[in-house]
Amino acid sequence: MRIAHVLRRLSFDDWGGTEQVVWNLAKAQSEAGHEVRIFATTALWRGGASDRVLQGGASAPPISRFRPVYPWWPMPKRLVDELDRKGGNPFVPGMGRAIREWRPDVIHCHAMGRIAELCLRTAAKCGAKSVISLHGGGANVPEEEARSLMAPTRGRLPWGKALDIAMGWTRRIPEDFGGIVCVGEDEADIWRRRHPRVIYLPNGVDTRIFEEAATRRGARRGDARRSPTALCVARIDRQKNQMALVEALARNPELSARLVGPVTQPDYLSEISARAAALGVSDRLAVVGPLPPGGRELVSEYAAADVFVLPSRHEPFGIAVLEAWAAGLPVAASGVGGLGRLCASHPGAAATFRPDDPEGIDSAIRAALCGAAEMSANGRRAAAEYDWRRISARAVELYALI
């Protein structure tokens, strides 16, 4: 089967959850013998060493990239950079033609807005099946956070709306796609009432990558001389709520923390740094930045940590929790949305808390540290259920039903 995966951006230097899902799903399908290609924009793409390392494997699918055009005026470079990170609902000239020329059997879209419309139109022109993944979270964004996401375009002329009308881009999204993939179970239940072909397909993890981390952690378990280190792997963004972990450092003087992930909201990183300085915990807080997905540096971060903490305000799933489980790392996570349901479905693999409850966060971190051995074993068993090879096969089953 020839499968085209389409998404807004795929940068190995600025990594997010959707990008990770698409890359690993495409790789697993390629390993299974399908012909796979990824189509993305050039947003945040720098073509550096991370690209060469990750695309060097035999199962790595080729990637075609196209420059996005954001429909706002004026459009200074600073605004382009912000929209590259946050969305911007771009037009992508040339992408549809390139997909048609490749003639896929399935177009699997991982974006909304104009890119989703482009996928529908392209599928109709080349006779391909159409599938869209709803990666979740949009309906649960707090009002304050939503305002911050829209701030870059406030006061600018949205010329794209007139072009949408002129081009007749009026398709219903996601209803007009042949199949809908939902990361969240609740979201899947909603769409099953509106569409005949909907599946709940959780995110996955390549357990093979993190076996080394689990082995290294097991070898040093029980070393009471070490001060515990909390690891958070997530983009630096208000949704991920790293500030809660900074506050926890002030209440737990024996704890240090490392934040791994790209900065999608620079003003939030400034707030984190200022708060850490005000609390006197800057020396126990390390902002590592983005690391290549599945690379040795990321694996080493999981291997060196003592507890994984994800304090998200809202979360459709939580891929990094799967990585932590695969690496044998005890988990303390926010019990919200799909993340809460993921943890609840695997009792004993994680301690959960409310993101606005400081005492609950502290208690969950302590529980994870004290029950590390048992939680590690439970987590590794849980991770095995989400191996990408299993997840990708279920996606292909949906393609066949359309």
- The CATH superfamily name of the largest domain is Glycogen Phosphorylase B
User: Under CATH, the topology of the largest domain is which?
Assistant: Rossmann fold
Average pLDDT, rounded to a whole number, is: 90
CATH class of the largest domain: Alpha Beta
Question: What is the helix/strand order?
Answer: EHEHEHHEHEHHEHEHEHEHEHEHEHEHHH
Q: What is the rounded distance between the termini? A: 13 Å
Q: Brief overview, please?
A:
With 402 residues, the chain is an alpha/beta fold.
Structural features, described:
With 402 residues, the protein is of the alpha/beta class. The chain has two domains: 2-204 and 387-401, Glycogen Phosphorylase B (Rossmann fold, 3-Layer(aba) Sandwich), CATH 3.40.50; 207-384, 3-Layer(aba) Sandwich (Rossmann fold). 45% of the residues lie in helices and 16% in strands. The protein is built from 17 helices and 13 strands. The chain has a seven-stranded parallel beta sheet with strand order 3-2-1-4-5-6-7. The protein has a six-stranded parallel beta sheet with strand order 10-9-8-11-12-13, with helices on both faces. α9 runs parallel beside α12 and α10 (242-251) packs parallel to α11 (266-279). The chain is globular, with a radius of gyration of 21 Å. The protein starts with a strand and ends with a helix. The model has no long low-confidence stretch (mean pLDDT 90).
How are the secondary structure elements laid out?
Layout lengths: L1 E8 L7 H15 L3 E7 L7 H6 L8 E4 L10 H10 L8 H8 L3 E4 L3 H14 L2 E6 L8 H8 L9 H8 L11 E4 L2 H8 L5 E3 L6 H14 L8 E5 L8 H10 L4 E5 L5 H14 L5 E5 L6 H9 L2 E4 L8 H8 L4 E4 L2 H8 L5 E4 L4 H13 L1 H13 L3 H14 L1
Parallel strand pairs: 1-2, 1-4, 2-3, 4-5, 5-6, 6-7, 8-9, 8-11, 9-10, 11-12, 12-13
Helix pairs in contact: 1-17, 4-5, 9-12, 10-11, 13-16
